Amino acid sequence: MPKCKITVIKRTLNKDLIDQFIVDEYKGIQKCEVFEDGQEFVIDPNQAKVPEGFCDWAWADIRKDIMTIASGGNIIGMKQDGATISGCSDWSRPVYFKIERLE
Q1: 73 vs 80: CA distance, rounded Å
Q2: Where are the domains of the chain?
């Protein structure tokens, strides 16, 4: 399988949900501190390990999308073949990634 590039396109903070559902002692949380907007990772999907510096939780969430793109799949509705947008499932401060097949 070809390598893929993962780009951090957006880190978000759902302040309204945090205020409504999180206990006071954790309401000061900020956007994800593991990643920076624009950060890029070039990965070999044939390797089973999490890339250095990548969040384990986010990796588990987006791994299926990486495998779809790396194995030649395309996502219906995407403007660019060989690419998709995916994200981690941290509802309070999700991170969104662009995954691109490098051919």
Answers
A1: 12
A2: 4-101
